[in-house]
Amino acid sequence: MKSFLRTFLRNPKTATGAAILALFVLLAFAGSALAPYDPSARSDDLLQPPSGKHWFGTTHLGQDLFSQVLVGTKSVMYVGFTAGIVATALAVIIGVTSGYLGGAGGETLSALSNVFLVIPALLLIIIITSSVPSGGDTLVALVIGFTSWAWNARVLRAQTLSLRRRDFVEAARANGESTWRIVLFELLPNLSAVIFSGFIGTVVYAVLTEVTLAFIGVPGISAWNWGTILYWAQSQQALAQGAWWWFVPAGLAIALLGTALSLVNFGVDEYVNPRLKNVGQRHAKAADGRPVKLRVGFTPVIHAPVAVAAEEGERS
What we know:
Blueprint: H1 2-10, H2 12-34, H3 65-101, H4 103-117, H5 121-131, H6 136-147, H7 150-163, H8 167-174, H9 179-187, H10 192-215, H11 226-235, H12 248-272, E1 284-285, E2 291-292, H13 305-315
Antiparallel strand pairs: 1-2
Helix pairs in contact: 2-3, 2-12, 3-4, 3-6, 3-7, 3-10, 4-7, 5-6, 6-10, 8-9, 10-11, 10-12, 11-12
């Protein structure tokens, strides 16, 4: 495990993304304790720009925006990761099962995925959260998770269909391995990049969905998250008043979280995909030990000495 972490974090993309993500996780747990003010408390500092007293400025009611961003991080991270876990679990169970088993059961699960693909998820989320305003972040996360697994399940099904007839799977089946062991130890390790990529995509989608719901004023969302800040900034015409500090911090937080998740995803892709392991390295070597200079926009073609000699022999 330690060697995996060392190799994984050696990639600059992964290290940067993991550091930013760890910061957001820390703020999600300790944001309320670190906030210098109550995010809902009013003061006489009305619509003040960033200063030493209020790092991100204040709203039209004198509320501290820095405290609102810190407290709102918990809701965003909770909804994003809860929805990602739920959707990924459903995608793995339904996608891998339908791809490996096949037959009537596999086709039924595939048809179920197709049904969920055409369901208007955002409209359904708005209806459910509006009908149950006391549901809170948990309800929002569960609804997002149960409506966003279908596309990843289709991708996993297609990958499983291509893997189930590979030699290593056939060998495991010939040795009498049980179905669950083949799925856990033969298929899932080869699907890890696809699974993790789907998880990251769902987390980003869940974060944007929650921010969108809060921005349009849908009830049932937590009192403070980044979308709530943007909702009040828009409703009070912060841009027209020149109060850029009201919406820029929350917007940057959303963009920074998405960037961190993407960087971690790129790092995982390069770790599990042998074709990408040398991407970004400045000093790659050919089969005979000769250094190969990598240039942006060009993929170097490395010929082994035997292949070069055979090619020259054919030409002569």
